[in-house]
Each structure stands twice: as C-alpha cells, then as structure tokens.
Design brief:
It is a single chain. With 343 residues, this protein is of the alpha/beta class.
Length: 343
Amino acid sequence: MSHPYQKMPAKAFWRNGTLPDPDGLITDLYAPKFTIDETTRIATAGSCFAQHIGKALRRANCAVVDTEPPLRRMPDPVAQRFAYGIYSARYGNIYTPRQLAEMLQEAQAPKAKPELVWERDGRYFDALRPGVEPAGLASVQEVLDHRKYHLMRVAQLLEKTDIFIFTLGLTEAWIDQPTGRTLPVCPGVIAGAFEPDQHRFHEFSFAEITKDLGWIGSLLRQFQPEMKLLLTVSPVPLTATATPEHVLTATTQAKATLRAAVGGFVQDNPHADYFPAYEIVTAPVAGGPWFAENGRDVALAGVDHVMRHFFRAHHLTMTDMSEDDASDEDPHCEDVLLQAFAP
C-alpha cells in the first residue's frame, strides 16, 4: 500500500525535521519566498524584538534604509535614547498591525492632529510615538511640526523600500476614541492622562488582524508596487495584560492569534512571507534556553541563533556581535514601563 506520507521530506516529520544540524540550526525551517542580497533595500518596524533584527542586518552591511538618521556627531548612546537608528524611521515601536496601518495611511497625506499630543509636567509628547522624545518638547506646535516632518520621512522611506520587515508583538491596545487612533501605550504611563470615557481598551481578533495585514500590504504597494512584506511574530511575552486573564494565558492567546493570522495571510498572499523567529526562540527543540534570567527578554545568544537561521537561508554572511553590541542597552520598549506598576 502507498500513501502521501511516504513521499514527504524529512522536514515534515517531527523526529527528523527538528534535529539540529552540525551548526546547531534546524534545516529547512525557513524557505524564503523572496531573494535578499546586499543590494535589497530593507525597512524594519515592529515591536521591541524587531530592533534586534534591524541591528543584525546593519552589522551584516545589508541595505537597511534609514530616512531619519541622527544628526552628525551625535554620540550613539544619545541617538539611541532619542530613537534614532533603531528602525528605518523614527516611529518608535509599533506593536499591532492596526497601529502600522494607520501610520502608513497618515504618511500618504501628513497632517498631525493636536488631539494626539500628551502633556507631562509642562512638556509635550506625540501620543503616537511618546518614547522618541524622552523629555518631551516645549509646545504642542513643536510636537505637530516634528510629527509632520517624521511622516514625510516615512513616505520617503516607503518609496525606497524593496522588502518591509514587520514584527507583530501584541493583540492588546488602547484606542483614542475621538480620533479612532491606536496608541502604542496606555495614556498616563509615559505622559498624558487616562480618561475612561476617551480611552478604550481593545483586544484585536484573528479576523481584525488578518484584515489589517491586508490593509498594510495594500498601503505598502501604493508607495512601491513591487514591495514585499516579510512578517515575523515577537517571542517576547506580555509585560502585563489589561484582560481578566492571567498574564501567562493572555500571552499564549495573543501569540497564538498573531501566529495564526500571519500564517493564513502569508498562504493567501504571494507578496508576503513569514520568518519563524517566534518558533526558533520558544520551541524546546530549537535549543536554548534563549531567554534571559527574567524569563521575558530574549538573550543575545537567542537573537544570534534566530538571525543565523535567517542569514543562512538567504545565503548572506552574518557578522558576529562585537563586545559593543553585547553591551548595548536593552531595546526601547514602552510596555516594559508597565512593570513599575506591578503590586
């Protein structure tokens, strides 16, 4: 008798497919749809883990686009503190697909909204990227001017990009009801004030995330018709949840929803692909443990393990982390600030 499993490759079987090769990598785990070489213009965005991806690509001298670089002679620690060089523009962390889609749409016709400016101790912050100016700015108008300039740079970025890499991090978000905008952090954590009648908690569903990914793909191709979208899911757990669930089950729910939505979207869209960073970090068969002692942050050895899979699949030469890289501060993550409110 014959059946389909007799003709399946080794990667289709758990016992064979999950065995690491002599380099400690899982063979055929990632089979890219798209070619990436040293000339491919890459943009990065997403939740905190996406910062690691961008750094690794820059170390390898890949063509990572940056249309909002720091000023000349600005020391690296200062540049990083003000969110320069972290992503391909100074948008800070983008945790949900809806947040990215709304930014892409706004970049088509930049017009900053004064309602989305937060205040703290007489200083003013962009509610859509509150972490990029740690001490805030002097006036509402200054925030609006900065945002309009930023959105112009985002538009320039999108016109130059061949592959947009986006890391999905969260399903939970806070929405500013008067404007309908999805916020990167709950009002009151960095600046502003939480208003129950104005700020609504929302947990994005599988259907919403799938729809938002389609929206993102459409918007990207409006800027660059041939642009490809490479998606990944952050392995970093939630710092805190606003649902009634335990943070562990809330994390599992969020990551399962994101992973399922991305999988379905990629299957149906030839311009989109998925890189399994989430699986490489979280699956026991992938080696490790790859988390730091706090059980949440991905250790630098884990980041290195993830990116070795990526670079080998694309036939690129990976540059090892230097001592300076290893001593870098942790990624900029607004949601980490929530830990300060733990009882």
